[in-house]
Design brief:
Elements (H helix, E strand, L loop, with lengths): L1 H41 L14 H15 L2 H7 L10 H23 L5 H6 L6 H24 L7 H24 L12 H21 L7 H32 L4 H10 L2 H22 L6 H28 L26 H25 L9
Length: 389
């Protein structure tokens, strides 16, 4: 009876794997065909983007995936760098998930820009005055650091090098997230972005979003130390969400100190239509306050942790939509102190609505990360003992 039971569980696990893989591949194929291919052949005229809003919904997905890819490595860092043994059984999954999300985010970025075959030019001809050129090193360096780190964990002969590799990956992921925040901070022409608070804000967000993603992925598996891990992640996730909310408040208070930022802050916080609604209801309430209440209740369960993680991810997309799209929708201040109007819509708030190809491309990035994680976990056998899917 016991053998039959084990065989049944194994068969159910294999069937679940193939069903999930089929769903992931179907979403990926739909996203590439209905999103990337359509945008490549028809041009960006089929998107909601325009001369004012050049970063659309695909960038929201891409930035989330890249920033969360840094934070999802929290689990591996806690195990290898800080010696927290409770996290060790799940550290390999953490590394794999980081690589998968980074790959998915970069795929969306390249396909959204168009002509991805020309990436070889960006990779071989650098303009170091452009912060985007730095990204070639930031992203490739992150990929290499995490790949080596994962290899050290998988190869028993290299186990003694796991901590140095973990330290290198930890340092590089902070560099990556700082660089992502700096991309926006250096855009001084945009009132939404020119702030030194953005690099630490993105670091705080990456820690919270990455932890939330890992909670949702880990919920699909049960294995060694899962109960203790959930208890520890519950407290840590609450602290990280609070940290992200704190830096968001600091960012807006810093902007409000300057008179020239008053109109922009009024637009984002009060009368900007969809943007204040998404910021207050989507990010502050649903994506921060409600998750913290769920997590910090004395009787919080595993389901409460998973609900809080899901709300955190939803809040992340709300925040990025407001930050990226709303930041571009507010008109550029070309002539400070003067009212500007022209046939090019100077001085006017720009309208934007994401199109179906944009959404499909964004979900293709998520599907790519999902498929890589699913197949990698199966092939590399990195899940804890007695885990099921």
């Amino acid at each position: 009876m016991k053998v039959a039971s084990v065989a049944t569980i194994a068969a159910d696990g294999q069937r679940g794997f193939w069903i999930r893989l089929a769903i992931g591949v179907a979403v990926l194929a739909a996203g590439l065909a209905g999103g990337a291919l359509v945008m490549e052949h028809e041009g960006h005229i089929v998107t909601g983007m325009n001369n004012e809003i050049v970063w659309g919904m695909p960038h929201v997905f891409a930035i989330f995936l890249i920033v969360a890819a840094s934070g999802v490595l929290n689990i591996a860092s806690m195990a290898s760098v800080f010696g927290q043994s409770h996290y060790k059984p799940w550290s390999k999954l953490s590394g794999l998930l980081s690589l998968a999300m980074l790959a998915g985010g970069l795929m969306v970025l390249m396909l959204d820009l168009g002509r991805p075959e020309r990436m070889v030019v960006a990779a071989t001809h650098y303009n170091f005055k452009s912060v985007f050129a730095w990204n070639v090193f930031l992203y490739s360096g992150m990929f290499a650091a995490v790949a080596v780190y994962l290899w050290m964990q998988l190869e028993k002969r290299m186990t003694r090098h796991t901590k140095p590799a973990g330290v290198a990956a930890l340092v590089w992921r902070f560099v990556l997230t700082t660089g992502t925040g700096a991309i926006f901070a250096f855009l001084v022409a945009r009132q939404a972005y020119a702030s030194a608070v953005l690099p630490p804000l993105f670091i705080a967000m990456s820690l919270a979003w990455g932890m939330a993603v890992f909670v949702l992925v880990q919920a699909a598996y049960r294995g060694e130390g899962a109960g203790e891990l959930l208890r520890r992640m519950k407290n840590l996730l609450g602290v990280l969400i609070a940290l992200g909310l704190y830096f968001t408040v600091v960012y807006h208070l810093t902007n409000l100190y300057f008179a020239r930022q008053a109109e922009f802050e009024r637009f984002i916080l009060l009368d900007g239509g969809i943007y204040p609604l998404l910021l207050w209801a989507g990010y502050v309430l649903a994506g921060s306050i409600v998750p913290m209440i769920l997590l910090w209740r004395p009787s919080a369960s595993a389901r409460a942790l998973q609900a809080a993680a899901a709300l955190t991810v939803i809040g992340a997309f709300a925040f990025l939509y407001v930050f990226i799209i709303g930041g571009q929708a507010f008109p550029l201040e070309i002539f400070p102190g003067y009212e500007v109007a022209s046939s090019f819509r100077d001085g006017a708030v720009s309208a934007y609505a994401p199109s179906l190809p944009e959404l499909l491309l964004g979900f293709a990035g998520v599907a790519a990360a999902f498929v890589i994680t699913l197949v990698g976990a199966q092939v590399l056998d990195i899940l804890p003992a007695e885990s099921t899917s």
